[in-house]
Specification:
Blueprint (H helix, E strand, L loop, with lengths): L5 E5 L3 H13 L3 E5 L2 H10 L4 E5 L7 H11 L5 E6 L3 H9 L4 E5 L3 H17 L6 E4 L2 E4 L4 E3 L4 E3 L2 H12 L4 E3 H8 L5 H18 L5 E6 L3 E6 L3
Parallel strand pairs: 1-2, 1-3, 3-4, 4-5
Antiparallel strand pairs: 6-7, 7-8, 8-9, 10-12, 11-12
Helix pairs in contact: 2-3, 4-8, 6-8
């Protein structure tokens, strides 16, 4: 049985793409390399991958467009962006599109491998300590990452799911911001913090029809999932 972590790398820089894919393969991963977003999307549709690594600036289809297309059919497979240091706002845009992490260029190959392993571990563990969780009139299944109400079913991304699980575990109590960042993102840096705020906003939007449920900010501390008894 092949237990190798299978990676789709989409990078138009011939030198970086070749070096990165060769290095990852030499380190025991199975890395498939494509040189533009459209080729990357077609390869994604044909095969199953554990991690997707997309450069942001690419011909034919850029990394953001590629991620948007991927998230249209797959909410779960982790996406890691490769981005230039000058593209801070683009990094945040990537998180809004459902990215799981990013690495700024130029990067150290060992850093890339560490990020890949962290993403895979988070995805596998997925903090699945629950089967079904009641959130007001909603029912959340952490294994399938589906949030259901009477009228709709929402497929959450991995990070949305992990955040919601942590909020549920701390229901009516404070979920410390730094703890959540380290548990879900692996690092409590500024950009991950901005990313988490985006995901919290998404969860609020999903739950807005439930009047007995609120996700509130606790200034200087973190967040709290409040459930008022009907």
């Amino acid at each position: 049985m092949n237990n190798k972590i299978k990676i789709l790398l989409v990078e138009d820089d011939q030198n970086l793409g070749s070096i990165s894919s060769d290095y990852l393969n030499a380190k025991g991963f199975e890395c498939i390399w494509e040189t533009n977003g459209e080729a990357g999307y077609q390869r994604f549709l044909k095969d199953k991958f554990d991690v997707l690594i997309f450069d942001v600036m690419m011909p034919i289809k850029d990394g953001f467009s590629l991620a948007k297309d991927v998230r249209g059919v797959d909410k779960k497979t982790p996406i890691l962006f490769l981005t230039a240091k000058s593209m801070k706002e683009d990094t945040l845009k990537g998180f809004e599109l459902g990215a799981d992490d990013y690495v700024t260029k130029p990067f150290n190959m060992e850093e890339l491998i560490a990020r890949i392993k962290a993403i895979v571990n988070r995805t596998k563990e997925n903090i699945n300590h629950f089967d079904d969780i009641s959130i007001g009139s909603f029912l959340f299944n952490s294994k399938t990452q589906i949030l259901k109400s009477k009228d709709k079913s929402i497929k959450l991304t991995t990070k949305e799911s992990e955040l919601l699980i942590l909020l549920c575990k701390n229901k009516n109590d404070i979920l410390e911001r730094n703890f959540a960042l380290k548990a879900v993102w692996g690092d409590d840096n500024y950009f991950n913090g901005r990313s988490m705020d985006v995901y919290i906003a998404k969860l609020r939007k999903y739950l807005k029809e439930e009047t007995n449920i609120q996700i509130i900010n606790v200034h200087g501390r973190g967040f709290k999932l409040l459930e008022e008894k009907a």
